[in-house]
Amino acid sequence: MWVNCKIISSNPLLYTKFKEFIIQTPFLVLLHENTENGADQQIIFWDVDTRNIESSYVKEIVGFGSIIIVISSLLSKDVITKLFEKEHLPCVGTLTKHIIYSQFVDEISRIMDAKAEAIFRVN
Question: What is the pLDDT of residues 88-98, one digit of tens each?
Answer without folding.
Answer: 887 888 888 89
